[in-house]
């Protein structure tokens, strides 16, 4: 018989698991990992209304995508065009970035799977006589290790030709040159930290759902147990 068990820890773990998966996925897909050095504007980018020049723009570069600014001469306005610069895996700018993409993708796949599974833990608390919370927590810890490996390897690729075209000739492994880190990199770091917090919360969720109070309510014949 399925017992629906809701506890404060299990709900918190489920919500955080979903948030972490989406956070890492959004960061991975973003082109805002590196913010390039300012590009000078052409005469076509002059502000016709004020007669002055507008601020130079900063192109951004992600693991496999980038954002650049294109000018519409007839309309005297600018748009930012974002999209992948690599049409396939082999065209990713650096071998280190290829490894980063693999490790991040593996970690994100595990996190997305755990986020999906976490929704059903309110009804299914064990699998093959193993606590599903402990299994998910272990896998989330493994995903966190994959993410760490990816983030460590990522700066090693800053010396590739693609990065130097954005960050100047002084860019090299673990040296940004004229670039700065974008929000996607910090988001990925934050998501990695939250991944390990999720693993800790899974253990607390296991303790909460197997507590004496839950067992007592099961013995009373209750199918819906809410201990929030």
TrEMBL record:
Its main location: membrane. GO terms for biological process: single fertilization. It is a multi-pass membrane protein. InterPro entries: LHFPL (IPR019372). It is found in: Membrane. GO terms for cellular component: membrane. Keywords: Fertilization, Membrane, Signal, Transmembrane, Transmembrane helix. It comes from the Eukaryota. Belongs to the LHFP family. PANTHER family: LHFPL TETRASPAN SUBFAMILY MEMBER 2 PROTEIN, LIPOMA HMGIC FUSION PARTNER-LIKE PROTEIN. This is LHPL2 protein. It comes from Scopus umbretta.
């Amino acid at each position: 018989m399925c017992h629906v068990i809701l506890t404060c820890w299990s709900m918190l773990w489920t919500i955080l698991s979903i948030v972490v998966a989406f956070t890492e996925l959004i960061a991975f897909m973003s082109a805002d990992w590196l913010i390039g050095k300012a590009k000078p504007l052409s005469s076509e980018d002059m502000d016709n209304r004020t007669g002055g020049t507008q601020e130079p723009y900063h192109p951004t570069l992600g693991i496999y995508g980038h954002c650049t600014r294109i000018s519409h001469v007839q309309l005297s306005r600018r748009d930012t065009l974002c999209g992948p610069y690599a049409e396939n895996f082999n065209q990713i700018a650096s071998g280190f970035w290829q490894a980063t993409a693999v490790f991040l993708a593996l970690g994100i796949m595990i996190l997305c799977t755990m986020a999906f599974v976490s929704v059903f833990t309110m009804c299914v608390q064990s699998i093959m006589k193993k606590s599903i919370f402990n299994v998910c927590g272990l896998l989330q810890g493994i995903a966190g290790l994959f993410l760490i490996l990816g983030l460590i390897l990522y700066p090693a690729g800053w010396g590739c030709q693609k990065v130097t075209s954005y960050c100047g000739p002084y860019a090299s492994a673990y040296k940004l040159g004229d670039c700065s880190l974008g929000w996607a990199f910090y988001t990925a770091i934050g998501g990695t930290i939250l991944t390990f917090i999720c693993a800790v919360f899974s253990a607390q969720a296991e303790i909460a759902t197997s507590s004496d109070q839950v067992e007592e309510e099961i013995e009373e014949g209750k199918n819906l147990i809410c201990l929030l």
